[in-house]
Write a structure and sequence with these properties.
Number of strands: 15
Keywords: Kinase, Transferase
Radius of gyration: 18 Å
CATH topology: UDP-N-acetylmuramoyl-L-alanine:D-glutamate ligase
Pfam families: PfkB (PF00294)
Number of helices: 8
Distance between the termini: 36 Å
Strand content: 15-25%
CATH class: Alpha Beta
CATH superfamily: Ribokinase
InterPro entries: PfkB_Carbo_kinase (IPR050306), PfkB_dom (IPR011611), Ribokinase-like (IPR029056)
Number of domains: 1
Shape: globular
Domain Carbohydrate kinase PfkB: 17-242
Family: Belongs to the carbohydrate kinase PfkB family.
Mean pLDDT: 96
Helix content: 25-40%
Order of helices and strands: EEEHEEHEEEHEHEHEHEEEHHE
Structural class: alpha/beta
Strand order of the largest sheet: 4-1-9-10-11-12-13-14
């Protein structure tokens, strides 16, 4: 399978140790997919500074296709991060850097390129909501990470263009998560996925709720845990659908959740989203 991340990239600047790591929801998806053995690409906007140079060099070394990325003079996106007992705490950033002034507008050429992939993944930090309908209309499967920055208006407007919606739900009680995922499904997403931190994850397919406990490890850093969980989950799910490896949808979702939990646990043992830190 070939997959692509479309949207945000940043460096995560760990202030307490003066080290920055490549990251961003869409970019992480591309890297994690590559780690899981898929052919992957990334389409995003890069600046002209040292951070952008480090990210692009890292992705080229990992053999992630960057052929349709945009490059502009200016500061690349960054987030400032602190670490408390292994948990990430975001304390600032520059709002996406050059991406603010040069947002992604998908051209016909982009769409023809993206149509060669099994799925395109984006996020709330990619400022891509107005472009999602183009992907849907082109027949591309779309997944979207709302993180914790969503409200009902955003969900209703966006989910009709999204096949697989991911939401951070650690702040909600279980019954509230169920209601949220029901709503997301009713707005148009085939699968609604909620991550709940140490309480694991939940998936709703329009009929049944599926729960998955996390695979507990002593974390080095939880940055990227949600992205890695989702990447492993959705790739296993899509591969199973394609190859018809499971007898039922329920079996496939359950098996995919296990794969997601396993991969997320591995990610928590690495500094940054996937390593490759340099000093700043």
């Amino acid at each position: 399978m070939k997959v692509i991340g479309v949207g945000d990239n940043v460096v995560d600047k760990y202030l307490y140790k003066r080290t920055m790591y490549p990251g961003g929801n869409a970019l992480n998806f591309s890297v994690y997919a590559k780690q899981l053995g898929m052919e992957s690409a990334y389409l995003g906007v890069f600046g002209s500074d040292r951070a952008a140079e480090h990210i692009t060099k890292t992705l080229k070394n990992l053999e992630v296709d960057l052929s349709h990325c945009r490059y502009h003079d200016g500061e690349n996106g960054y987030a400032q991060v602190d670490l408390v007992d292994g948990d990430r705490v975001f304390i600032g950033g520059n709002g996406g850097g050059v991406q603010k002034d040069h947002p992604i507008v998908l051209t016909d050429e982009d769409l023809e390129y993206i149509k060669t992939f099994e799925i395109a993944h984006s996020s709330i930090y990619s400022e891509m909501e107005a472009e999602l309908h183009k992907l849907k209309e082109a027949g591309v499967k779309v997944s979207f990470d709302f993180s914790a920055d969503y409200n009902d208006q955003i969900l209703e407007k966006t989910c009709k263009h999204v096949d697989f919606s991911l939401l951070s739900c650690g702040q909600w009680k279980d019954e509230e998560v169920e209601e949220l995922l029901k709503r997301v499904h009713s707005y148009g997403s085939n699968l609604a996925i909620g991550t709940m931190g140490s309480r694991g994850s939940m998936v709703y397919d329009g009929q049944t709720f599926y729960r998955q406990e996390p695979h507990f490890v002593q974390p080095v850093d939880t940055l990227g845990a949600g992205d890695s969980f989702f990447t492993a989950f959705i790739l296993h799910y899509l591969k199973g659908k394609k190859e018809k490896t499971m007898k039922t949808e329920a079996e496939l979702i359950k098996a995919s959740l296990v794969e997601g939990a396993k991969f997320a646990a591995k990610t928590c043992l690495v500094d940054g989203a996937f390593g490759y830190g340099i000093s700043f």
